[in-house]
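WARN no homologs supplied; continuing
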Amino acid sequence: MEVTERTVRRDIARLRELGYGVESEPGPWGGYRLGSGTRMPPLILDDEETLAVAVALRDAALSGVLGSEEASLSALLKLRQGLPPRIADRLGELDNAFAYTPRHDEQQITPGMLLELAVLCRRSERTRLSYRDREGKATVRDVDPYRLVHTGRRWYFVARDVARDQWRTFRADRVAHAQPTGQVVELVDPPDPAVLVSRSIGGGTYPLSARVRLPLPLDAALRLVRPTVGIHHPDRPDGTIVEIGGNDADELAAYLLSLGTPLQVLSPDEVRQALLHRTRELFEDNGGNLPS
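OK structure emitted
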């Protein structure tokens, strides 16, 4: 190869630093060979391969097909930050051309806005947020971005409201515009973002809340009722009390029936009665007779 042994050793050391597994074997018939690495080494991709990976990561982040939307979004963010302009422009054209079918008749966040919010969280840069609440009222406020949380149905943007000095959760699909101010802030004692979102949408934002006891240990109850749907409290080793929010008693009764498991409604009585009414109707519609 017309290089010195010193050059070979230096190059091998550099490859190992990059994460490539390089095995060595001494002796006249020995040498170096590639083996399993200790971490993911740099990949050399051409334009088409890079574009394909970026599109796949974006779709994975939006659909949850890989089961970890946050990991997909983080990988996509790292990839896009290093894209040459010619590839970034092509990916932007695809973002504008693609349309996604909303799930559950819900508004869906655009890939561009999702990445923009992720960049702001990574930079900890104070942002002027244009936002619409669930009544459609538009507000503009300064926030300190912290994290993006995915619930399986929506993305939530966790940030500190500067004027109110409070940690808030914002539905990311309701963010109309996010304008960075250039001011980098240091966040003091930030909350657990997943817990904050769970408490926000589990009961606090609904006009009615029900307390239900499930005859399941905490880990099984969390699999049945996701943390972003209810607030869980262990109740002895074999039980869990869950607080679930809803718009009205009938909506809560329908959701509880859909769980397909024995349960006890602790409060309020209107949810208990709505559940009994739905159960009675279901029984009678299938040929059952209840005493009057």
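The mean pLDDT is 81.
OK
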